[in-house]
Amino acid sequence: MKREDLLAEPVLHMKLQPYMTVNQLIQQFSNSGCFGAGRLAAACGVFENMVRDEKCTVFLALAGAVVPAGLRSIIADLIRKRLIDVLVSTGANMIHDLIEAQGGHHYKGHWFVDDFFLYKYHINRIYDIFVPREDFVKADKILIEMFDEIAKEKQGQVLSTSELMRLIGSRLEDPKSIVRAAYEANVPIFLPAMRDSEFAYVHIVHAERSKKEKALLVDSFKGSSEIVALAERSRHLGMVVIGGGVPRNTVQHAALMADKGLDYALIITTDRPEYGGLSGSTPEETISWGKLKKKAGKVMVIGDAMIIFPIMVAAALERFGKDFQRKGNP
Amino acid sequence: MKREDLLAEPVLHMKLQPYMTVNQLIQQFSNSGCFGAGRLAAACGVFENMVRDEKCTVFLALAGAVVPAGLRSIIADLIRKRLIDVLVSTGANMIHDLIEAQGGHHYKGHWFVDDFFLYKYHINRIYDIFVPREDFVKADKILIEMFDEIAKEKQGQVLSTSELMRLIGSRLEDPKSIVRAAYEANVPIFLPAMRDSEFAYVHIVHAERSKKEKALLVDSFKGSSEIVALAERSRHLGMVVIGGGVPRNTVQHAALMADKGLDYALIITTDRPEYGGLSGSTPEETISWGKLKKKAGKVMVIGDAMIIFPIMVAAALERFGKDFQRKGNP
Amino acid sequence: MKREDLLAEPVLHMKLQPYMTVNQLIQQFSNSGCFGAGRLAAACGVFENMVRDEKCTVFLALAGAVVPAGLRSIIADLIRKRLIDVLVSTGANMIHDLIEAQGGHHYKGHWFVDDFFLYKYHINRIYDIFVPREDFVKADKILIEMFDEIAKEKQGQVLSTSELMRLIGSRLEDPKSIVRAAYEANVPIFLPAMRDSEFAYVHIVHAERSKKEKALLVDSFKGSSEIVALAERSRHLGMVVIGGGVPRNTVQHAALMADKGLDYALIITTDRPEYGGLSGSTPEETISWGKLKKKAGKVMVIGDAMIIFPIMVAAALERFGKDFQRKGNP
Amino acid sequence: MKREDLLAEPVLHMKLQPYMTVNQLIQQFSNSGCFGAGRLAAACGVFENMVRDEKCTVFLALAGAVVPAGLRSIIADLIRKRLIDVLVSTGANMIHDLIEAQGGHHYKGHWFVDDFFLYKYHINRIYDIFVPREDFVKADKILIEMFDEIAKEKQGQVLSTSELMRLIGSRLEDPKSIVRAAYEANVPIFLPAMRDSEFAYVHIVHAERSKKEKALLVDSFKGSSEIVALAERSRHLGMVVIGGGVPRNTVQHAALMADKGLDYALIITTDRPEYGGLSGSTPEETISWGKLKKKAGKVMVIGDAMIIFPIMVAAALERFGKDFQRKGNP
């Protein structure tokens, strides 16, 4: 490599002006090309490419309490426009979607509070969000009834988490719900750790009041074969990660088990690689496992997903233009 | 509160000398009482207290690739001495334990490498650890056979992850294995996201070569009732967290579902609360949910568990003295 | 406080659309009000308020390599519009401004490189930026000449860093330069650690070739009285921090020495408070010292300033409208 | 490179036992060799090597509030044993040493407090440390008198920060003081941003009550030539960094200006490289600038210096044995 090749592209300093659009700002980030600005600009490009790739099945892996905090509509809209094709989530995010689907709310609170005071007031805290316990109770009640009803309908049939989420989605009315939108758009929702959430409580109550034999039976491994089959049917694979954890690992592992590497990987996280955890691992590391292709479009943006993800989506929407609707895959 | 109460305890500066023991160092950290040193010293106290509390069931929640990186023996020893009573883990950490139980190894590698080069060499990277693919393959093969055998034995009976881990443990010989130690010491291992790991691949191959009906059926929710029952039977509850994620949430949620708060909570993590994720949430926040008691012994140590956890355990072992053996709970 | 007061304001989920402006996006962040989105929306409000406050002297404290990475024009424009009144910076950022003022450049590079290879190629790396050594050499040469010239002109007079920066600014031609813009707009530049930068080398060479007695004499403490006097003359004080370190501390300490607390504090950083360093300390902590008023508008945004700062400025420009020009203080 | 070379050294799992010494624990960390444990074990080796290297001048670069939090005696002892030869610090850390040298104290406090309440109580907070304002006032008073006295003695002579610190050290009695120990051991203390601390206030009051011409004149740049000369006289250069910021940069830049690279670099920090700031930059990046030699012993430990630094020093003291006294350099 020649020296001049290393010094080919000067940093252009960002210029700002009133009324610039989000995508115009991203262009300025691209002019800089450095540090977080460079990474975010690159992320917008990777997202644009994976969505424009008509052969690509786009997985959104979702961890962290981003649904209660305000990303619910963005995700539901992405599903309806089929900018994403598969959702892999923590159980908790779907519970929070369902709480709102049943009329519950999350509230702007504060982190500097006496938590025992909140406890006595029946208010659960998620950093600076407050959730009244009665909204959990209401959602629990409706979900338990749904579980009863589904169990009766399915008569001991073994379900996967995605089948169960689809059955729940079909019973919802709230058009703003992620679970409902996924049902309507035929986007499967995988919850590889479904029981690690309020769904566990729902199932326990449901199972106790059913005769045990008739309680819903959710097969831990059924979702594995489903997601692998889905990856096998896909021609290209793209992954967008918010947070990391089980959802990210599940998508990557599905690509591996389908004997395909991901073609696109976009990771938004605050974790870093030096502690060795999966959530902070670089896209490059993923190549060694065969989970990501060598030539994949890939970028890791370090930052709060509540800031980064909306910017990226807004920039992409601008690039796609009004009325953009994707066909969806696979 | 009077001013003098706020200025009651001066920082004493640490003194170091050759040949000091780990616990003597922690005493110096306690003299400082500030920043990370104060938190680590407090953590040693909380850990000591929960282990000395004869009524306490101690849960270890394990996330991050700490087993491949060198904590395997420490955890197996803790189990044998019953310093912990329940293990809740990611699937991956148990897979890495099983890889070594089958004669495989993890290797000291480097993070500054060409990952595509590793890929071609069939070497998987975990930050600065290298794992040869053949060791995965060997473990897969043996696990698939175990799954076949267990399926035949259990004849369609529905299992929980802890039952399955116990059956695997009973088939192992390596005394250094965590899974074996847990079997011998009657310590249950819960894997709330078992399928999010190489176990998924193992199950897929096993299921394909079994007649489908006879494949192992692991019930997603069965572990929930087991862990809740276990928490209900416990008089006190203690939690030690490495990392966070699904394992931490599962333990906290079990305490809630058992309608008891945790009495002790010790969290070692590099996550921070400001992004709203569970892994970084403070013990205080956990109080608002009723998952942690108001007066619980609690501390969050921010740092690499590969450093913090061994220090804490070494200090505790020194406090307990040689030949300390705990009876275990519940 | 009543329970309903804690549950007064529900999180409104963000809605995105093509062609939305940066400020419209910030409104959506404000609807969420949580986690990083809430903090960034609040930051825009604090910045807007301090700029609209006609009595407020706005200090920008600048650390981190953000000038080489692309914020140069934004800062120069803020100075020209007098959205900031005082700049307190590391020496390095001003050196990088001067490198470009002399025709040098910073280049988009990569962090995954062999640094010894770069060394042999005479390329200095700043994470993913490359700076050719000859651009340093060229800037050094011109700065040494300026130092010689200024020393001759000033005849042994003792200077402060802000006086020296002003004399340098007066000698520049590049209208895009921060140092030039500050000269033209009468915005003082304080460099409390000036010698901790290439200026040290410049001064050494200058001093060696001058007769020692005639070398420029920059008084370490002269800037302290200047900045305190400036704070005393100001009716309100506002602080915007990128990074932290010496620049942040200098501004806060000036407010204290002037026996005034800051009225506005906006901090963009990736540091966290738990390690006890100044850069990560919360605005709240600053209140205990009397450096920040109890009722001050204050917010700390955790994130990469290369992303956060431009968003905040773009949103503010939109709120102020085209052709907004501030008078400036004190 | 052959595949077997990549798989040469298996991770050995740590074994813990009661009464193990700190250095024995580090040996276990070395057996793992991974993640933070590997980095910390490597750091102990680098520190041992630089201290054992009889030609090496060891610089300690000190940022962050680690002196108030309990590292004062460790640093003073390192100076007396000449395990370090040069101290480069923030002003604040020396102020806190001087507060204690005048009988003041720092107190164990808490971070979850009402800071305005502390303000009214005249208590300054540094995360979870409380400092009573009267201890600042007492130190201020004595320092102002010292400044008066030194100014009279020096009669307008221009001083560097290290000369001034030496003159202050000579006037102290507290044997536990860092500044006193440095004076006795002939270890220079450089404060490249001296004015960014309470020293600024001390100087302002001193200057106001002196006739201006007789006030102490501290030359910003004099320290630069001193530290460069010191580096030039040194045969090898070693750097230990706590935190980063101006102190780290000053040491690295001195090595560059002396036209020598550092031979050893050991950095303890919580900053990361991806944001582009100096504090988080890798030792490797430092090679591109010529500030660090290609073959230098180098390691960056990510973590709280209040934990990492004492461990590392305790392990080193054990390796050196009792009564180890280094001659010192240059």
Explain the overall architecture.
The structure is a homotetramer of 330-residue chains. In chain A, helix 2 crosses helix 14. In chain A, 68% of the residues are buried. In chain A, the strands form three sheets. A six-stranded parallel beta sheet of chain A has the order 7-2-1-9-10-11, with helices on both faces. In chain A, strands 3-5-4 form a three-stranded antiparallel beta sheet. Chain A has 14 helices and eleven strands. The first copy, chain A, is of the alpha/beta class and 330 residues long. Chains in contact: A-B, A-C, A-D, B-C, B-D, C-D. Chains A and C meet through helix 2, helix 3, helix 4, strand 3 and strand 5 of A and helix 2, helix 3, helix 4, strand 3 and strand 5 of C.
Topology:
The structure is a homotetramer of 330-residue chains.
Chain A lengths: L2 H4 L15 H11 L2 H18 L3 E7 L4 H14 L5 E4 L1 H11 L5 E2 L6 H6 L2 E4 L2 E4 H22 L3 E2 L1 H10 L7 H8 L3 E2 L7 H12 L7 E2 L3 H12 L2 E7 L2 H13 L4 E8 L13 H6 L3 E11 L2 H16 L10
Parallel strand pairs in A: 1-2, 1-9, 2-7, 6-8, 9-10, 10-11
Antiparallel strand pairs in A: 3-5, 4-5
Helix pairs in contact in A: 2-3, 2-14, 3-14, 4-9, 5-7, 7-10, 8-9, 11-12
Q: Given the C-alpha coordinates, what overall shape of chain A results?
A: globular
Structural class of chain A: alpha/beta
Number of strands of chain A: 11
Task: Provide the succession of SSEs of chain A.
Answer: HHHEHEHEHEEHEHHEHEHEHEHEH
Strand content of chain A: 15-25%
Major beta sheet of chain A, specifics?
6 strands, parallel
Estimate percent helicity of chain A: 40-55%
